[in-house]
Amino acid sequence: MFERVAIIGLGLLGSSIGLAIRENLTGVITSGYDADPAVRERARELGLASSIAETAVEAVRGADLVILCVPVGAMADAARDMAPGLPAHTIVSDVGSSKVSVAKALADALPRHSVIPAHPVAGTEQSGPDAGFAALFRHRWCIVTPPQDTPRGKLESLVAFWEALGSRVEVMDAAHHDMVLAVTSHIPHLIAYTIVGTASDLEEVTRGEVIKYSAGGFRDFTRIAASDPVMWRDVFLNNRDAVLSMLDRFQGDLERMRQAIDAGDGDAMHDLFSRTRKIRRRIVEQGQDDARPDFGRGGSAD
Ligand SMILES: NC(=O)C1=CN([C@@H]2O[C@H](COP(=O)(O)OP(=O)(O)OC[C@H]3O[C@@H](n4cnc5c(N)ncnc54)[C@H](O)[C@@H]3O)[C@@H](O)[C@H]2O)C=CC1
Ligand SMILES: O=C(O)C(=O)Cc1ccc(O)cc1
Description:
Blueprint: E1 4-8, H1 12-24, E2 29-33, H2 37-46, E3 51-52, H3 56-60, E4 65-68, H4 75-82, E5 91-94, H5 100-109, E6 114-115, E7 118-120, E8 141-144, H6 152-164, E9 168-171, H7 174-201, H8 203-206, H9 209-212, H10 216-224, H11 229-238, H12 240-263, H13 266-285
Helix pairs in contact: 4-5, 7-10, 7-12
Bound molecules: 1,4-dihydronicotinamide adenine dinucleotide (NAI) and 3-(4-hydroxy-phenyl)pyruvic acid.
3-(4-hydroxy-phenyl)pyruvic acid binds near residues 97, 121, 122, 123 and 124.
């Protein structure tokens, strides 16, 4: 499949890919690079790749697959940095949470290379090289969004790579990906950031009791709201149109629930809550409830 894989950006995603290759693809040689010298140093201590280079150019030399694992707003810079060392045959991919703008940024920066964007829908609220673990991708979807002219053999190699790390792979159009992920991932994060912010602003009124008595629901929101600020700023800057369109839908539905509460319309509430309860049960039945941060580190879900 691939003999040498270069990983650019050694935070949660990059370190997990390094560890997952070591565990599942023995024989594949990996090289890593991160713009932050402290991350490179830590990556060496943790053995996240066969070698950690001091420059992006050095890291990608001889690689047949390069995976960019940097915030979506840093993809273009990362691609330009490594370009002088990139062999002509190398497939360039990424793990960014939004796809249309990343696909364009990478195609513009690397016009002569095969760029096949991808998004492993697997992660946690943690970031940095210490947060990675080899089982992150196991039983999780990886969405691959190839441009129309992608050679079939190259696409098949990338699909096989993600399957070897334990993922289920879906091939999808980038614009469709951005719409779906806006509602399943990006807006939920926005809601979590906002509700935790609102509760924190209320602390003066409630004398600290919001945090003190935070029950399950709010506590779950605080986990999501602890996610990396740079990464999520970049997601909303780069998936603006899809997020705004889904946000309009959501605001309409929220307003309908506000009206139901105002009107004492218990049936409307019961209908929605019953429908959503069934969705949750279906997710659990399908074994997809494995987003807990300890998944794969000896937790019972693994
Ligand atoms: N955190 C998550 O749960 C998930 C994140 N993603 C995507 O994966 C990508 C990486 O996210 P994380 O690993 O969570 O972030 P992270 O913050 O843990 O790591 C990102 C790393 O990229 C490095 N970096 C930034 N600019 C760079 C550049 N120009 N060249 C080289 N290195 C550079 C940073 O120093 C940092 O170490 C993002 O695009 C994110 O949208 C995808 C799925 C899940
Ligand atoms: O921690 C969680 O619950 C997540 O939702 C992780 C996550 C964050 C970003 C992605 O693009 C994919 C997965």
